[in-house]
Amino acid sequence: MYFDNNKRFICSSGNDFKHVSQWLSTLIPGMLLILKRPSMLVLCCALATLGVCPLSHAQTREAQIIERTVEAYGGERLLTIAGLSVNESFYHYSQWLSGHALQGPMVTYMSELQSEYHIDFTAQRKVFKQANTRRVGSHGSDTPEVTHRLFSAGKGISIDHALQRYQPSQRISFENATLGFEAMLDTLIVRKLARLKQTSQWLDKAYIAGIPHDVMTAPLDDDPQTTHTLYLNQNSGALSRVMTEQQGKKRFYDFMAHRKTQGILWASHVLVSTAEGPLYHSRARTLNVGQPGEAVFQIPAAYQRAPKVKPFDVAGLTIRELAAGVYFVGQDWGYTLFVDAGDYLISAGTWQMSEQAGAWAKALSKLRDSTSLDKPVKYHIVTHHHTDHLRGLADTQAENTTLLVHPADQAAVEAELGPRVNIAPIPASYTLAAGKIRLLDVPNSHAAHNLIVYLPDSQILMTEDMFGSSFEQALHSPARWPDLDIYHRLDTLVDTLNKQGIEVSQYVSSHHGRVLTQADIDRAMVIPRTERAVLLQRLFGGK
What we know:
The chain is of the alpha+beta class. It folds into three domains: 2-58, no CATH class; 70-305, outer membrane lipoprotein receptor (LolB), chain A (Clam); 318-532, Ribonuclease Z/Hydroxyacylglutathione hydrolase-like (Metallo-beta-lactamase, Chain A, 4-Layer Sandwich). The strands form four sheets. Strands 11-12-13-14-15-16-17-5-6-7-8-9-10-18 form a 14-stranded mixed β-sheet, sandwiched between helices.
């Protein structure tokens, strides 16, 4: 039973007509007009004067559509399943920094994601495992980035398979344990939709692959800044598409090739995209219905609890004198090294995502305010061609600073700053200020030319995007974000230093406030670089 577009009440069957007729005739005899088609009732407006709505129990259009979809996905069985398990693989596409200046600033990266997650609805617990292998882009090895998140007994745990240890985490909850990958499974979306009959709204009809779809909105999560628009197949009830919109940015989830497992419908193929292009494209997926086995929620027996780590405080703009006339200034994710060369200063390192951030200018102002150094910055060393390290260079031109650039990267700098920039290739001797500064080009997976800055007198070495730590004492795991292949870059750096016979006492990075010692680097060098096959075995147990 439902209302048609003209607000008339429609009986979908003879039984509907019979039951409503009998009920109305006992309530208000003679007030009901039965049309020629026995499946339609038109209520007389005199009903309104009675102050009663005899059809108030009738379902809304939205409720009927949702019920049709829920029924298609398994009905009551969908709503009462004890759990499910999903194994899947995707290609992930992204636009990111190029490895070589001739490619331009940005290129398309492609990673292969192998994932599995298990949900126990009865015990309210989840486990999520994923191996991320970069196939196209700047990378130096095929070692995957490995993620293993567990939520059980009301507690979150992160498991590190490279170092074979685990760490409790308050950031992991039942809702976020799978890092949003549940949004790629239509079955779980429909399970949520079943509870949203009163808050959903029908919008329109649209065609996908020639089939009419009901278009409606539904509040699938608690974020008021995000809207969800669903496209529901009028013939089969299947969910074909979800569009999310947040702050004007839209993302599309297209669900295809639906199958049934133990009466539960699910899409075996999914494409996630934006107007700019694809983000995720499924390669394979399987779904099992039922409560997951206990073993998937267990921490490997041999793993030890990791020591607590404390992030290095980078909130405030700070200045440190690392040696006589050598200053390290910055905050957050961007730091600059300033060297007093006598009559002038030389700087290296700058980072900012916004063109208006003024990170280098703020660091220079902090230096002058703290030291009373009123010397011009004659040179700034540009280590490589990536735009996040070039955006802050516009401020150097206000100081009439000359940018020292590797010849292969000069065109990239000019493209970012314009042809009138003060620029010069690095000197053929790779030394500055009468030997106070030595430059080395260390090609690596991140950039085909990456200059490192070495101060022989103080044995200070500065790098950008080579190695660092965001912790007060600890080092990052070699198989976890944000490192990916950064230990591979460290190996390249150390190999270069050893061949050159260069000794270092302090290592600084333009991305890290913490200054590392040689003892820290020695400790990093003995951290095992676990091979791909071993990592996958530990993560997935041979599957």
